[in-house]
Amino acid sequence: MIHEVLARPAPAGAPAASGALAIRDLHKSFTIGGAPRTVLEGINLDIRPGEFVSIVGASGCGKSTLLRLIVGLDDDYRGEIRLDGERVSTTSLDRGIVFQDHRLFPWMTLEQNIELALLNTDVPKARRAQIVAEHIALVNLTGFEKAYPHQLSGGMAQRAAIARALVTEPKLLLLDEPLGALDALTRVRVQNELQRIWMTQRSTMLMVTHDVEEALYLGDRVVVMAPDPGRIRRIVEVDLPHPRDRAAPLLHRLKDEILAELTAAPSAPSNLVHLPGREVR
Amino acid sequence: MASAALPALAAPTMRRRAPLASFLAPVALLVLWQLLCLSGAFPPQVLVPPSEVARTLWQLAETGELQRHVGESMTRLALGFAIGALAGLAFGAAIALSRLAEVVFGPFFFAVWQVPVIAFVPMLVIFFGIDEQFKVAIVILAAFFPVALAAFDGIRGVPRAWFEVARVYRTRLPDLIWRILVPATLPAVVTGLRVALTRAWVVLIAAELLAADSGIGQMMEMGRQMFRIDVVLAGVVVSGVIGFLLDRGAKAIERRASRWRAA
């Protein structure tokens, strides 16, 4: 009994012991046409190990920028981003990301694409093929190992991208509108897959989306952001166990609430003021 | 040309019929040419009938003269192309990867690129005479520019997104170069190589016509001076066939290199 438990590497099924993200007073600004422009202001967020957190907000509220900062593609920020206490300054295999476009390399097969993520790891070469096969199975793509990206459908390619991001077993997986480019039906299917994958992996996940329903269906919490400058408006707890029922009344009530909040933003009246002027032109 | 443009659409039956159909135009031209000669509208010294050209070709081949000229031309092409393409690759990669190199060499390169390679002939003749170096130099020039430009465009065209993927997975530099950068730029570079090869061939023949002591072009020029139009036309046929085969061969390689592009 004990041997069995000890022999197993990191327990994948149990809640991960690490993967805690802490963001403190995060500020980010870009210089656009010589003038500085604040994209993120005073972001404070704590994510527990193994938690699934969704971020929703109008476009331009800096949610994708936030993910780029957390993954380490951009280190020009003020404030603190820490994963398990360690300050983020560059990319790391502890933090994976799935982009909106799958970003698979078109000249590599599905297998080779996923294996690429393992190139700079100490995983022995002999083990790699097995790990890759396991992750292809995890996203239900067994049988497509030798397929090139152009031979995969959009949903399959995005699942492959998820497999590539997970193959290094990151403590934290970032998802930047991963399902944004998929059609409605495929999106629902991949959402279900994603929920199943998260439930088996139990790594911390942080997903940016513009789909409130998706955010609520998957997230333990939903962070609602406001634009100009990007800041957290509200954090909604979704107190429902996984796997969830899409028809759950709580999800629908929360969806109406969040949508009302997002659309009744102060930007709406100002839009109305500007509209007649535009019509004249 | 047209058949190459729509390989994906071509049904199997069309493919089978295509080789036959593509022989139609040349055969018709030959028949027309022969008939025109038989009509006696032109003196036979000026318009030599295709049968005569074929006989001359056969004689040239029998004496080994043709092989010698073709061999000379091909050696120059191979040597010049190898040097020019390698230099072009290195230069194109340098100005694509280094800001400094681009600022220093870029504008000059893009200006010189506009000059027809043939325009360098007088200068090269002054520098190198009409010997071997001159012909190789002109081939180097002809190959250098298309390859350099293709390498530059190819590398610059690699999406930023792919570099980000490499950063996320902390891909090491050798892997980044061999697994990502090279495959990503390969299709553009191979296209550049093909363009360079056919251009180099054309430029070489032209250079041999102008100043040479051997080679296909020189064989044609000698024929012209001795009023052997049959030899001139034999040279036209041979250089055309070789150019065509070079292009076809390069295209086959190009297709293999960009197989994954087929969407």
Structure description:
The complex is a heterodimer of chains A (281) and B (263). By secondary structure, chain A is α/β, with parallel strands linked by helices. Chain A has 2 domains: 21-94 and 171-261, Rossmann fold; 99-169, no CATH class. Helices cover 37% and strands 23% of the residues of chain A. Chain A is built from 9 helices and 10 strands. Chain A has helices at residues 2-7, 63-71, 110-116, 125-138, 154-166, 184-201, 212-218, 249-263, 267-280; strands spanning 21-32, 35-47, 52-57, 78-83, 86-87, 95-98, 172-176, 204-208, 221-226, 231-237. In chain A, the strands form 2 sheets. A 6-stranded mixed sheet of chain A has the order 6-7-8-3-9-10, sandwiched between helices. A 4-stranded antiparallel sheet of chain A has the order 2-1-4-5, covered by helices on one side. The N and C termini of chain A lie far apart (77 Å). The model of chain A is unreliable at 1-16 and 268-281 (pLDDT under 50). Chain B is mainly α. Chain B has a single domain (52-258), classed as Orthogonal Bundle (MetI-like fold). Chain B is elongated, with a radius of gyration of 23 Å. The chains are: A alpha/beta (281), B mainly alpha (263).
Q: What is the highest CATH level, the class of chain B?
A: Mainly Alpha
CATH topology of the largest domain in chain A: Rossmann fold
CATH architecture of chain B: Orthogonal Bundle
Order of helices and strands of chain B: HHHHHHHHHHH
- The proportion of residues forming helix of chain A, as a percent range, comes to 25-40%
Total helical elements of chain A: 9
**CATH homologous superfamily title of chain B:** MetI-like
Indicate the CATH architecture of the largest domain in chain A.
3-Layer(aba) Sandwich
Instruction: Output the structural class of chain B.
Output: mainly alpha
- The share of residues in extended strands of chain A comes to 15-25%
Count of spatially separate domains of chain A: 2
Helix-and-strand structural type of chain A: alpha/beta
Average pLDDT number of chain B? 83
Poorly predicted spans of chain B: 1-12
CA gyration radius of chain B, whole angstroms: 23 Å
Percent range of helical residues of chain B? over 70%
| Shape field of chain B | elongated
Shape summary of chain A: globular
Provide the CATH top-level class of the largest domain in chain A.
Alpha Beta
Query: How far apart are the termini of chain A?
Result: 77 Å
- Largest beta sheet of chain A: what is the strand line-up? 6-7-8-3-9-10
